[in-house]
Amino acid sequence: MSRRRKGSEEAWIPKTKLGDLVQQGLITIDKIFQNNLVVKEKEVIDQLLPQLAEDVITIKMVQQMTASGQRSRFKAVVIVGADGFLGVGNSKNKEVGPAIRKAIDRAKLSVIPILRGCGSIECGCGGTHSVPFKTEGKCGSVRIRLIPAPAGIGLACADKVKQVLKLAGIEDIWSKTFGDTRTSENLVKATFDALKNAHRYNFNV
After folding, report:
1. How many domains does the chain have?
2. Of all residues in the chain, what percent carry a pLDDT higher than 70?
3. What stretches in the chain show pLDDT beneath 70?
4. φ/ψ bin of 192: left (φ > 0), alpha (ψ from -120 to 50), beta (otherwise)
5. Rounded to whole angstroms, how far apart are CA atoms 56 and 127?
6. pTM for this model (two decimals)
7. Final residue of a domain: which of 79, 113, 147?
8. How far apart are CA 151 and CA 130, in angstroms?
9. Distance between CA atoms of 46 and 63, rounded to whole angstroms?
10. 200: exposed, middle or buried (C-beta count within 10 Å: 0-12, 13-18, 19+)?
11. CB-based contacts of 114, cutoff 8 Å, min separation 6
């Protein structure tokens, strides 16, 4: 269910030149990424990717010692995505709701296009059900390798990785993980990093 309200969209007053262009309908999401433009307003993504879905990865309580005593806060990790687009964000707050909403806003600002293809030698269908070639990513002690799989294999990976790949529109994959993969946040961010690095490998080719 979308958290965006129609009234807030109507009241949006762009604060950047890019926001002005989007509001006037003078630029597309593809042009933004082709020209490496930085999105600083979540409303840009709201308007250009209205089909964006949200998925909460983890919500956990974190505690911090301060001069006045122990302070507890909630930390939320969220992914947003549509067919071929994905973003990850996290936030802390003393209440769960605000932590999730802020994490969603940050995830929207991190949205990137996902490079999809059929890099499997066994398949070679030329479709976009997997990734075009092997790609790796890391976060903290966690490292992940995404390997193209033929159509019909499905997502042969950990559950948290499945959440990310499903939202990105990837249907078939093999994966190998290294490090402390019990840390869901790092595993998700490593997967996001691997998908982001696919563009770097493609450029180098």
Report:
1. 2
2. 93
3. 1-10, 201-205
4. alpha
5. 29
6. 0.88
7. 113
8. 8
9. 33
10. exposed
11. 84, 85, 86, 168, 169, 170, 195, 198
